[in-house]
Predict the 3D structure of the following.
Amino acid sequence: MAFFQIGSKLFEADLVVFDKDGLLFDSQYFWKGLAECRMQALAEWIGPEGLAEWCRLFGIEEDQGVVHHVNSNGIFALAPPGEEVIITAALIHKYTGKDWGESRQSSFNVFDSTDRTFDVISALKPKPGFPDIFTRLNTASIPFGIATSDEYERTRQSVDHFAKFADLQFVITPFDVLRGKPHTDMLDLISTRTGVTPDRILMIGDSFADMQMASDAGCIGIGIPDEPDMLRKMLPYASCIIESLEEIKLITMEDGPKN
C-alpha cells in the first residue's frame, strides 16, 4: 500500500496502471513515424486518391507523404489495431474492387508487414518523468503495468529500450479483451488477475478514453492531457488532472501520509 501526492490531492492505492502513447512517449512523434510507414505500404493498394481518403478518415494531416499532425481524437490515435484493419479493408474494397475477404486479408497484410518493418525505436521520444516513474515505483515495491491500445510486441520494444520491461506486472492490449477503451474490460481484467479491487487501482493516462475507463471501472483516474480539448473532455471523468508524470509523488507506508 502507498500514498500518492498528486497535485494538491492525496490518493491511496495498491497498483498503478499506465497508458503508453502520449503518456510515456510523445504520441505525435510516434504516430507520425508509424503513419508514414503505413501510408507507403497502402499507396500501392489504393493510390493517391484512396490514400488521401484514408488520411482524412484516420485524422492524419500530411503533404506528399510527410505527416505534419495526427488528431489525438481520431481513428489513428484511439482505435485498436483490429478496427483500423477493418476500416482500411473497406477502402481497399472500394478502390480495388476486390471481394471483401480478399480486401480484409490485404488490409491485414499491410498492417502486419508495417508492424514488422517499422523502426519503433527511432520513433520514440520519452515524456518528462519517464522512465523515472517506473524506477521510483519499483524501488518502493509498488506493482505497476500498462493498458494500451497498441499491440504487445511494440509495447515491449518501446518500454524495454528505456526501462526494464520485466518490471511490469502486466501488459494488457486490445487482443486480451473483448472491448477496448473506454470500456472497462482492460481494468476489469487487471483487477481480476492481480486481485486488487478497482478502488485501489490508480489509472494514469493522457486521453479522455483512459479517464472514462477508469471512472466507469471505479478506479482512480489521473489525467495528463497534451491539448486543451483533451483536458476539457477529461474533466467529467478524472479524479485529478496534472501536467506531467513528474508531479506524482510517492509516499510509502514508512514515510506515512503527508497532510
